[in-house]
Amino acid sequence: MEKQIKAVIKDVIDFPKKGIVFKDVTPVFGNPAIFKKMINSLAKRYDGKKISAIVGVESRGFIIGAPLAYKLGIPFVPVRKPGKLPRETFKEEYALEYGTNTLEIHKDALKKGDKVIIVDDLLATGGTAEASAKLAQRCGAKVSEITFVVELDFLKGRDKLKGYKVFSIAHY
Fold first, then answer.
1. Which residues of the chain have a pLDDT value below 50?
2. Inter-axis angle of helices 60-72 and 32-46, nearest 10
3. What angle do CA 76, 24, 19 make, to 5 degrees?
4. How wide is the angle at C-alpha 27 spanned by C-alphas 21 and 30, nearest 5°?
5. What's the pTM value of the predicted model, to 2 decimals?
C-alpha cells in the first residue's frame, strides 16, 4: 500500500512558504482504486477490535475517517476548527511554528469507555494529533490508535505522541 500511495502523492515546491516541499495527499483521494484499497486496508486493520468511533481531524481526516467509519459500521466524530460546531464543545489549544491554534469537539460526541481511532492525512509535528487525542480523552474516550496516510519522519511528530499507538501507511 505504501508504494501505491507514494506513487500518486505530489511534491509541491515552496508551499505554503519558500523552502518547504509539501506532500500533497489529495491525489490519493482522486484515485478511486488506491483510495478504496486504502480504506479497505484500514478497515481490515480495525475490524474486530471493538472500536466505538472514528474521530476525523478537519479537514482531510474527514475524507479518510467518514468512509472508514461507514465501512466499520461505527460513528464518525469530527474534530473541527473553532466556531464550526453548533453545540457545547471542549476546546484544545496547540502550538504552531508561529503562534497557536485551537480544535474543538462536541462534549457529547463520545462517552466514557469509548475506544476510538483518530484519523488524519499527515503527521508532521504532531500538534494537531495530540490536541485531537486530548479532546477525545476529555470526552471520556480511550484513544486506541492515531492513524495517518503519510508521516514525515524527519519532523519527529511521533515524539509528541508518546503514550499513543501511532500507525502511518507511508513514510518520508
1. none
2. 60
3. 130
4. 165
5. 0.95
